[in-house]
Amino acid sequence: MNHLKSVRKENELTILNIWEAKRRIASIINRTPLIQSYILSEKVGRPVYLKLENVHEIGAFKVRGAANKILSLNEEEKKRGIATFSTGNHGMAVAYVAKKLGIEAVVCISQRVPNAKVDSLKRLGAKIEIYGDSQDEAGERCYELEKEKGLTVIEPFDDPHIIAGQGTIGLEILEEVPDLKDVIIPLSGGGLLSGIGLALKSNDPSIRITGVSMEHSAVMYESLKVGKPIKLVEKNTLADSLLGGIGLDNKYTFQMVQKYMDDVLLIKEEEISYSMAFMMDKHRMIMEGAAATGVAAVLGNKVAHQEGALAIIISGQNVDLSVLRQLIQNYS
Ligand SMILES: *Cc1c(COP(=O)(O)O)cnc(C)c1O
């Protein structure tokens, strides 16, 4: 009688968690636009859609997961405050949601995080702690704060509420693209891909999910190759939002990415910079390197052709002006 229950793992997420997230975050998160890119569609001979997750107030999708997590805390936890560590966008998302809800937020970041992101964090009212040379080191500081002050650490990706929050993107795409066949998703810790993968595959397992990362320091990619989470040294990349470890004791996203991702592509720095400049030129759209990895996959014809629609998750737009200036100069 309880057959299903005994087979299903206790902590496994289902599509119901994503519906629950959709209802929970509706009061503070807007549905984002989905537009067809006629230029990219023409290039690959099939409809290409862009899911514009860059248009959230903080310029990236991470508000979805952060909102779902923070709204699910109890009153006691909200009163003690929250802490997080991040290469930037997750930290901004947590600060943004905390401010909206009147909760105190501390953000621990590494010294690699670009200036534009540090300034935005301060503007959002977060308390900043700069610590160490990598996301992992900033994370250690965060857990010290949890012990010392009883703050709740809001994980950037390896948390069921975060994953379910990001999964709401999948529900929105499903409602708007009936003949969806391919979805291209920037991949770092894998919260974004796990959530969208669960949402899409629960409805139609034949939808192909492709993860995209930069060529250097692609931790999830290298971890999947050896079959367990590993650490890598972080190298500078235009896709700085894709840097960071996946956690050696990863609980959810490693397995979920393994389960839901059909293909993974690594993108060279030149391809990322060209795609960012191309989108400025042809679409008058600014996107950060992480988001441009998906465009690069399509522009470089790296996704095996099949009939039907393809959607790219445009995950964020937070990029320093100095980087854009350089890109425009080199674009031809
Ligand atoms: C965080 C982030 C990603 C990757 O999300 P994960 O859940 O860590 O895989 C992609 N693009 C942008 C802009 C991000 O901020």
UniProtKB/TrEMBL annotation:
EC number(s) from the headed UniProt entry: 4.3.1.19
Catalytic activity entry: L-threonine = 2-oxobutanoate + NH4(+)
Gene3D superfamilies, A to Z: 3.40.50.1100
One annotated GO molecular function: L-serine ammonia-lyase activity
Annotated InterPro entries: Ser/Thr_Dehydratase, TrpB-like_PALP, TrpB-like_PALP_sf
Swiss-Prot/TrEMBL cofactor(s): pyridoxal 5'-phosphate
Entries under Pfam families matching the protein: PALP (PF00291)
GO terms classed as biological process: isoleucine biosynthetic process; L-serine catabolic process; L-threonine catabolic process
Key word Transferase present: no
Database matches in NCBIfam families: PRK07476.1
Protein role: Catalyzes the anaerobic formation of alpha-ketobutyrate and ammonia from threonine in a two-step reaction. The first step involved a dehydration of threonine and a production of enamine intermediates (aminocrotonate), which tautomerizes to its imine form (iminobutyrate). Both intermediates are unstable and short-lived. The second step is the nonenzymatic hydrolysis of the enamine/imine intermediates to form 2-ketobutyrate and free ammonia. In the low water environment of the cell, the second step is accelerated by RidA.
Homology family: Belongs to the serine/threonine dehydratase family.
Protein name (database record): threonine ammonia-lyase
Biological source species: Priestia megaterium (strain ATCC 14581 / DSM 32 / CCUG 1817 / JCM 2506 / NBRC 15308 / NCIMB 9376 / NCTC 10342 / NRRL B-14308 / VKM B-512 / Ford 19) (Bacillus megaterium)
